[in-house]
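Possible regression after last week's pipeline update?

I re-ran a chain I had predicted before the update to compare outputs. Posting the input and the new output here so someone can diff against the archived version. Not blocking, just want to make sure nothing changed silently.
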Amino acid sequence: MKIDSHQHFWTPSRGDYYWMEGEGAKPIRRAISPEHLRPHLKALAIDKTVLVQAAPTVNETEYMLGIADATDFVAKVVGWVDFENRDDLKHMARFARHPKFSGVRPMIQDLPDAEWMHRKDIQWAYDAITDLDLTFDALGFAHHVEPFQRLFDARPRMRIVIDHCMKPVIREDKFADWAKGMEKIAKSTPVFCKLSGIATEAKPGWTVETLKPYARHIIDCFGPERVMWGSDWPVLELNGSYPQWHAAATEIVGAKGADAIFGGTAAKFYRI
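New output (post-update):
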């Protein structure tokens, strides 16, 4: 079974996608539905996807679960609740009863405080994720590697996957510090990692060789059994295309480990 472990749908007219307001997001500031993605999945024989939140609202989670109910290929949903509002425990518990709900993703990359994940008033959310046996998608930039390392060390029982390889700054060729930090996470924690989102971090006109050192480092450190491929579509369209990124990843991964990276790992982590 082939799985795209990270994709989005959205309806901008709902008004809660704050990050779409800038000019940079204009090319993808349009309604995106399952029927826009289906041709890509069919062309590449991808069976299932994981639908991930793109707005920091409970309404976004409700919206995605509605799509999942009506869409055969959406296997799991990664939603959002307000970690800063303990009353949202009721939403997390309610969502946890939905068979396609997997877990949550706070949009940490966009928060001004790099230490936000360590605030005392949000620790209830990690407790709830663990107690409800949900997943946690860790979204951050390269400068979040060390703060996330401390969170992962403190929460060994939480089911965690890093999104987008923690967004190395490929366009500026900043490899060393990111690589060292990710290697430490891989060696010292049971965390998983998504091979996704790195094309967006490269300069326009990227090639396989541009992305290969970063992708191979993740695969070599975490191993195929803890790495899962994701498209990050349609954000991907800001600097690439679905078939282009899939082809690049296929070439980089090679035959060894491909079954795990392109399906098996996501199936195991998200219980698909």
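Follow-up from reviewer: compared with the archived run. The chain has a mean pLDDT of 98. Marking as no regression found.
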